[in-house]
Specification:
The protein is mainly alpha-helical. Helices cover 76% and strands 0% of the residues. The protein is built from 21 helices and no strands. The protein has helices at 11-30, 39-46, 50-53, 55-67, 71-78, 80-100, 104-118, 121-132, 138-166, 171-174, 176-190, 205-224, 234-256, 270-300, 305-313, 315-330, 335-353, 362-389, 396-436, 440-449, 454-491. Helix 4 (55-67) runs antiparallel to helix 12 (205-224). It is globular, with a radius of gyration of 24 Å. Keywords: Cell membrane, Membrane, Transmembrane, Transmembrane helix, Transport. InterPro entries: EmrB-like, MFS, MFS_dom, MFS_trans_sf. Pfam families: MFS_1 (PF07690).
Length: 507
């Protein structure tokens, strides 16, 4: 374990070190959303479908999820500062390779490497902020860390859109290089006094291997299932079997291992188990819609990547304003009530999107995004308090790692399922629309009378049918997400009531 012997910094050194850690966390979180609006550009450049382009998002999330629980071991084995610097170097190297990728396979492989290196940077930056700030300023340090976590997803779509439209999509990844270089140099020069003690502690190699195999098989199955007609494919069936057996053996191994890679025994605390269950379902629904919206806007409503980024970025505006207010409320109000309200609010904004259509103007699209930001802090802030407050003090680090692992995995799995359903439902809607299309020949004649050739008229009708069918599929996804939010809001009441709200949830 890391000792508390580190001497807190002060003055300009503290300011610069704090900024470096905040910027590093900002960059890693930014990369979870910056590619969202760039997917159509990437798909067009590499000659792949938009659904295949989402692999760029899910591969990063899955890889990140795998390494988050290993952060504690890395810090104990190599030291927090040394692990931070090495992870940042790796993140920069894979960012460069992502920008140089010439095929989908190369890009996904390099995104996996980027996620593996980026995963530990979030908890390490949090740990080091607490070590360099005096104890009386820990709240301010966590406020700084939380602010970068909230602001980065706002900046991601806007920055990704501007870069994709005005430069080219590789710069979405190249932009990390100068930032990472500054963080590495400053980290070596400023953070060395905050280094943690190390111990030659072994790692659960079997548990780690089982985790990688099972999670990898599940994600690949979800990503390629649609193209291979799901379980009609021997390859998909084999992946499903590997994932199912892998997870079963992984759970059994981790529950009996003395030093597990992922401490599943924490799930014995009902408050923690209920909180992470609600988090997984709600975040899976939330992140899936975050991925689908920019693709729909660019692919079927004619939005540029920049304009799509502006629409989606409204989510974070009220989130930034409400976060400190909700943090104060969490000490006075039952966290379960705040969480329930927040998740139901997210469900209500998802219902608003279920009424979107192809004629919607900018503010019709942006308003639900703006309203969603109001509810996000009610969901994230008290849920973290409830979950981590339900475990023993010595289990806090493992609980945070497991919680982040499940949240990130839920986002990746939710995205894969939602994009598959989105495409399948669009095909069904298209078939239904074609079946009820009244007098297509008359429509063609009308268009020809307006100056269209026969082929142009047929193409125009085909485009309209496709646009409307995808829009119907999109609103179906929002309706399904709303139902999932409602379920998650009810689940949270299965958690026991915290005994001392003013001091945070009791164990």
């Amino acid at each position: 374990m890391a000792s508390d012997s580190a001497v807190p910094m002060s003055g300009p050194r503290l300011l610069f070190a704090g900024m470096i850690l905040a910027v590093s966390n900002f960059m890693v979180v930014l990369d979870t959303t910056i590619a969202n609006v760039s997917v159509p550009h990437i798909a067009g450049s590499l000659g792949i479908s938009s659904s295949q382009g989402t692999w760029v998002i899910t591969s990063y999330a899955v890889a990140e999820a795998i390494t988050v629980p290993l952060t504690g071991w890395l810090a104990q084995r190599f030291g927090a500062v040394r692990s931070f610097v090495m992870a940042m170097i790796g993140f920069a190297a894979f960012s460069m390779l992502c920008g140089l990728a010439e095929s989908l396979g190369m890009l996904v492989a390099f995104r996996v490497g980027q996620g593996l290196c980026g995963g530990p940077l979030m908890p390490l930056s949090q740990t080091l902020l607490l070590r360099i700030f005096p104890r009386e300023k820990h709240a301010a340090a966590m406020g700084l860390w939380a602010m970068t976590t909230v602001v980065a997803p706002i900046a991601g779509p806007i920055l990704g859109g501007v870069i994709s439209d005005n430069w080219s999509w590789p710069w979405v990844f190249f932009i990390n290089l100068p930032i990472a270089a500054v963080c590495v140099v400053a980290g070596i020069g400023l953070l060395r006094p905050a280094e943690t003690p190390t111990e030659n502690r072994g790692i659960d190699k079997v548990g780690l291997a089982l985790l990688v195999v099972s999670v990898g098989a599940l994600q690949i199955m979800l990503d390629i299932g649609r193209e291979h007609d799901w379980f009609a494919s021997t390859e998909v069936v084999a992946l499903a079997i590997v994932a199912a057996i892998g997870f079963a053996v992984f759970i059994a191994w981790e529950l009996t291992e003395e030093n597990p890679a992922v401490d599943l025994r924490i799930m014995r605390h009902r408050g923690f188990a209920v909180a992470v269950t609600a988090l997984s379902f709600a975040f899976g629904a939330f992140f899936a819609t975050v991925v689908i919206i920019p693709q729909w806007l660019q692919g079927y409503l004619g939005y540029t990547a920049t304009d799509a980024g502006h629409v989606t970025a409204f989510t974070g505006v009220l989130a930034v304003l409400m976060s400190p207010i909700v943090a104060q409320l969490t000490t006075r109000v039952d966290p379960r009530a705040l969480i329930c309200f927040g998740i139901l609010w997210l469900g209500a904004t998802s219902l608003l999107r279920a009424f979107w259509n192809t004629g919607a103007d900018f503010w019709t699209l942006a308003l639900p995004q703006l309203m969603q930001g109001f509810g996000m802090p009610f969901f994230f802030v008290p849920l973290t308090t409830l979950a981590l407050g339900a475990v023993l003090p010595q289990e806090m680090a493992s609980a945070a790692g497991l919680m982040n692992f499940l949240r990130t995995m839920a986002g990746a799995v939710g995205t894969s399922i939602a994009t598959t359903a989105w495409d399948d439902q669009a095909r069904v809607a298209r078939s239904d629309l074609v079946g009820v299309l009244n007098q297509p020949d008359q429509a063609i004649q009308t268009l020809q009378g307006a100056g269209f050739t026969l082929e142009q008229a047929r193409g125009q009708i085909e485009r309209l049918v496709q646009q409307e069918s995808v829009t119907l599929s999109t609103t179906d996804i929002f309706l399904s997400a709303a139902l999932l939010f409602a379920f998650s809001a009810m689940v949270i009441w299965l958690a026991p009531r915290p005994r001392r709200v003013e001091a945070g949830p009791a164990h």
